[in-house]
Structure prediction request, 148 residues.
Amino acid sequence: MFVAIVCFCAGVSQTLIGEIFKQIISNETQGVMKFWKPFLLVLWIAGIIVLLIFYIIPQEEALNNETIQKLEKENELLTVKNVSLDEEIKKLKKQTDSLTGKIVLSHKMIQNLQNALDEKINTIDRMSALDLYEYFSGFTADSTRLKQ
Prediction:
Protein backbone atom coordinates (compact mmCIF):
# COMPACT_ATOMS: atom_id res chain seq x y z
CA MET A 1 0.00 0.00 0.00
CA PHE A 2 2.74 2.41 0.99
CA VAL A 3 4.72 1.61 -2.15
CA ALA A 4 1.64 2.27 -4.27
CA ILE A 5 1.09 5.66 -2.60
CA VAL A 6 4.74 6.59 -2.95
CA CYS A 7 4.81 5.51 -6.58
CA PHE A 8 1.60 7.37 -7.31
CA CYS A 9 3.04 10.52 -5.73
CA ALA A 10 6.19 10.12 -7.79
CA GLY A 11 4.14 10.12 -10.96
CA VAL A 12 4.39 6.42 -11.85
CA SER A 13 1.22 5.00 -13.39
CA GLN A 14 -0.72 2.11 -11.86
CA THR A 15 -0.08 -0.21 -14.80
CA LEU A 16 3.66 0.25 -14.53
CA ILE A 17 3.47 -0.58 -10.83
CA GLY A 18 1.52 -3.73 -11.64
CA GLU A 19 4.13 -4.81 -14.15
CA ILE A 20 6.94 -4.15 -11.70
CA PHE A 21 5.26 -6.29 -9.03
CA LYS A 22 4.57 -9.09 -11.54
CA GLN A 23 8.21 -9.25 -12.54
CA ILE A 24 9.39 -9.10 -8.95
CA ILE A 25 6.99 -11.84 -7.87
CA SER A 26 7.59 -14.09 -10.85
CA ASN A 27 11.35 -13.70 -10.53
CA GLU A 28 11.79 -15.24 -13.98
CA THR A 29 15.12 -13.81 -14.93
CA GLN A 30 18.05 -12.43 -13.03
CA GLY A 31 18.69 -9.76 -15.68
CA VAL A 32 15.30 -8.23 -15.10
CA MET A 33 15.90 -8.15 -11.34
CA LYS A 34 19.26 -6.47 -11.86
CA PHE A 35 17.47 -3.84 -13.91
CA TRP A 36 14.62 -3.27 -11.45
CA LYS A 37 16.62 -3.21 -8.19
CA PRO A 38 18.21 0.21 -8.88
CA PHE A 39 14.89 1.48 -10.21
CA LEU A 40 13.09 0.37 -7.04
CA LEU A 41 15.82 1.90 -4.92
CA VAL A 42 15.43 5.23 -6.72
CA LEU A 43 11.65 4.86 -6.44
CA TRP A 44 11.89 4.28 -2.68
CA ILE A 45 14.20 7.25 -2.24
CA ALA A 46 11.86 9.42 -4.32
CA GLY A 47 8.92 8.21 -2.23
CA ILE A 48 10.69 9.04 1.00
CA ILE A 49 11.63 12.47 -0.33
CA VAL A 50 8.02 13.10 -1.40
CA LEU A 51 6.82 11.90 2.00
CA LEU A 52 9.23 14.26 3.72
CA ILE A 53 8.35 17.20 1.51
CA PHE A 54 4.57 16.86 1.59
CA TYR A 55 3.85 15.27 4.96
CA ILE A 56 6.53 15.35 7.65
CA ILE A 57 8.11 18.77 7.07
CA PRO A 58 4.76 20.63 6.85
CA GLN A 59 3.65 18.97 10.10
CA GLU A 60 6.83 20.09 11.82
CA GLU A 61 6.36 23.59 10.42
CA ALA A 62 2.75 23.61 11.63
CA LEU A 63 3.91 22.48 15.05
CA ASN A 64 6.57 25.19 15.06
CA ASN A 65 3.99 27.78 13.97
CA GLU A 66 1.64 26.70 16.77
CA THR A 67 4.48 26.93 19.26
CA ILE A 68 5.40 30.38 17.99
CA GLN A 69 1.78 31.55 18.27
CA LYS A 70 1.51 30.20 21.83
CA LEU A 71 4.75 31.91 22.78
CA GLU A 72 3.59 35.19 21.22
CA LYS A 73 0.34 35.04 23.22
CA GLU A 74 2.26 34.28 26.39
CA ASN A 75 4.64 37.13 25.58
CA GLU A 76 1.68 39.52 25.23
CA LEU A 77 0.27 38.37 28.57
CA LEU A 78 3.64 38.82 30.23
CA THR A 79 3.96 42.28 28.69
CA VAL A 80 0.60 43.28 30.21
CA LYS A 81 1.66 41.86 33.58
CA ASN A 82 4.97 43.69 33.30
CA VAL A 83 3.20 47.00 32.70
CA SER A 84 0.90 46.46 35.69
CA LEU A 85 3.87 45.51 37.87
CA ASP A 86 5.75 48.62 36.73
CA GLU A 87 2.77 50.76 37.75
CA GLU A 88 2.62 49.02 41.11
CA ILE A 89 6.36 49.61 41.59
CA LYS A 90 5.86 53.34 40.91
CA LYS A 91 2.99 53.45 43.40
CA LEU A 92 5.05 51.65 46.05
CA LYS A 93 8.02 53.97 45.46
CA LYS A 94 5.75 56.99 46.03
CA GLN A 95 4.48 55.41 49.25
CA THR A 96 8.05 54.68 50.30
CA ASP A 97 9.08 58.28 49.67
CA SER A 98 6.06 59.53 51.63
CA LEU A 99 6.77 57.19 54.53
CA THR A 100 10.46 58.11 54.48
CA GLY A 101 9.48 61.78 54.84
CA LYS A 102 7.20 60.94 57.76
CA ILE A 103 9.94 58.90 59.40
CA VAL A 104 12.38 61.80 59.09
CA LEU A 105 9.83 64.18 60.66
CA SER A 106 9.15 61.68 63.44
CA HIS A 107 12.87 61.32 64.15
CA LYS A 108 13.23 65.12 64.30
CA MET A 109 10.26 65.34 66.67
CA ILE A 110 11.67 62.56 68.85
CA GLN A 111 15.05 64.31 68.92
CA ASN A 112 13.43 67.62 69.90
CA LEU A 113 11.45 65.93 72.68
CA GLN A 114 14.60 64.14 73.85
CA ASN A 115 16.51 67.44 73.92
CA ALA A 116 13.69 69.13 75.89
CA LEU A 117 13.64 66.22 78.35
CA ASP A 118 17.42 66.35 78.74
CA GLU A 119 17.23 70.12 79.42
CA LYS A 120 14.58 69.59 82.10
CA ILE A 121 16.61 66.78 83.68
CA ASN A 122 19.75 68.95 83.67
CA THR A 123 17.80 71.81 85.21
CA ILE A 124 16.49 69.54 87.96
CA ASP A 125 19.98 68.07 88.51
CA ARG A 126 21.42 71.56 89.08
CA MET A 127 18.79 72.45 91.70
CA SER A 128 19.56 72.40 95.36
CA ALA A 129 17.41 70.55 97.87
CA LEU A 130 15.51 73.69 98.76
CA ASP A 131 14.87 74.51 95.10
CA LEU A 132 13.65 70.96 94.50
CA TYR A 133 11.29 71.24 97.47
CA GLU A 134 9.91 74.48 96.14
CA TYR A 135 9.64 73.14 92.59
CA PHE A 136 7.73 69.98 93.48
CA SER A 137 5.63 71.28 96.38
CA GLY A 138 4.76 74.65 95.03
CA PHE A 139 5.75 76.29 98.33
CA THR A 140 8.30 78.98 98.66
CA ALA A 141 10.64 79.21 101.62
CA ASP A 142 11.11 82.95 101.33
CA SER A 143 9.03 85.00 103.63
CA THR A 144 6.98 87.65 102.05
CA ARG A 145 7.64 90.08 104.90
CA LEU A 146 11.32 90.23 104.24
CA LYS A 147 10.83 91.00 100.59
CA GLN A 148 8.83 94.10 101.29
In short: Residues 19 and 75 are 58 Å apart (CA to CA). The chain has a mean pLDDT of 79. The radius of gyration is 51 Å. The chain is about 90% helix and 0% strand.
